[in-house]
## 1
Amino acid sequence: LADKGAVLIDTRVASESAEKTIKGAKSVVYREKSAKDVKFDRAQDKWDLSKLPSDKNAAVVTFCNGPECWKSYKASVVAQKAGYSKISWFRGGFPEWNSKGLPTQ
């Protein structure tokens, strides 16, 4: 998806993203206080949607620290509820990407 122009969004804490992230990814930290559950209360969390593309039809991929990390899943739900129509959640996240030796920065 990145090769086709999708915007990659790293939802991990800023220090993790600054240390190493997927090449070309943008850090938009998801501040999580809600339960790690599909019925999470997004009002408890903070995520700056203004840092996403203004075009709600743009392809966006969220990622974090893999299947046990819920930040990117929650971010994808919040973005979808805000009207973004092409949201993808990279469940394996940065650990999977990095373990495959794919480009990082």
## 2
Amino acid sequence: MIVSDSHNFIYARVPKTGSTSISSALAQYRRISERVRCVDLVNQLFCQILQKKNIKFSAYPHLSLHSAKQIIGAQKFNSYFRFSVVRHPVDRIYSQYRHVKRNLSCRKFQAMYPEMLGRRADFERFLESMQSRPIPPQVSMLIDEHGKIQANA
């Protein structure tokens, strides 16, 4: 998520939609002080939710707009332009598959996707495995607790 107080916008990063590239392009519009303040606010929110200290913001790059509203407050949130990017669901799941394939040397991915190890680690097998652990829909990053879209565009 990028929150820019100087340009009055919030960008919600939906996973597997080119969010890293978009965030890189938008980074120039936020000041370092905004980045630091956002990190502090996110840490406070997650410390309250998880009852832990020293949560690293880098571990949570894909916060929902609902979380942004809780972090910055409803008044400021409603005054900012809120947007995101979504992707065709088939392209998105294929991007997830490619991401898993690229990272199968990592023990974390091996534990998460054991069925992808071995000879038959193709897209069809990946799709079969996703039936038991579906990727959250993209809209879940953009709605509030009542299911109302929080993005302007």
## 3
Amino acid sequence: IREAMRLLQAEGLLEHQPHHGVVVRSYSAEQAEEIYRLRSLLEPLATELAVQRASDAQILAMRDLHDELCQAVALQGAQTGVAELNAAWHREIYDASGSSYLKDFISRLWTALPVRAIWLTRRAAQSTSQHAGIMAAIESRDPGEAKRLMKAHIDFGAVSTTEHLRAIGNGQ
């Protein structure tokens, strides 16, 4: 149980509060907006660098993850697996950027607002459609287009996430 709680804390889902113990962490729309503002700057940059630096094998790995994600979304089955595939696809791109600092900052932002935990299934099809455009730009080695499309994708996620948090009462 302790190990499970430690993993949930690492994912940003639980937090320790003095005199209360471990509690489920809540997120406000304002916190999400701040995190997405930073993601919208860093992730497109990482994508641009990845297009410039990725090996053919890395691009093939991105393609494989994208295809697997599209199949999972089409099946509409194991949604928890879909969220993990989405995160893995993004990580694969950011790993190919070749910037350890950039990857670290992005990883911290994904942990600050647990993207996998708030994956919105109602926007999964649109998200994978956006991924398809990003993949096409990566495969054609167009860093400017890949960067532009990743920014639009992150901005779309920001709107969806903050609207969702406000709808469930976490907006302030």
## 4
Amino acid sequence: MEDTAENRAIYGLIGRGISYSFSASYFNNFFERNGLNGHYQNFDISTIEEVKKVFDTPQLRGCNVTIPYKTEVIPYLDQQDEESKAIGAVNCISFKQGRLTGHNTDAYGFTKSLKDQLKKEDHAALVLGATGGAAKAIIYALNALDINVITVSRGENSDFTYESLDHATVRHTPLIINCTPLGTYPKIEQAPPIPYEALNSSHFLFDLVYNPEVSTFLRYGKNAGARIENGYNMLVYQAQRSWEIWNSLC
């Protein structure tokens, strides 16, 4: 088939306020390096109802989904795979024979990014922002790794609120994962409100935020001697898995 804009496969990211996202540059560089006739773009929508127009985009072959629509997008899909059903969130949508299928590649990306760095002492994890779509995938992955999960959020549907989270719990929970967008560019001074003075060198802080490279959350951990990891590798792994899904179902 001739390589033209008219027959170019379109992929994209559905979210709100996503100009910072790495996905478009990552995939478009991938297409160029591999001589593929594809284009990836941001679909920045203000409400989930606008996703119906996104799905009408000509030549659309697949989408990723980010904050705040990983759960809200589900009613607009025709079906989900079993893993995304178990997680309760979708961050990847495949298109096949006119049907929209939801998948979740966040759990895969997180597990692959985290697994090689885990120590046997990393027996429990605090999940910050535990009610969001990203956190659902993280909790699913942690459970699969037999890591005890302690949830923290602003609401009442978690083990702790930020106000009730105490120093002792932080001190004795080695793995702390930020699933909130706090600290993302341009509001890089923000961080989840936890007692950072309880951190020490036995902790491992993992931040799903990847821009900036060292968020305020991670900087607190680094200053305390903790191991730190941002979300970049997780995003690369989940993007690679998304590409595998889109192509395996074509």
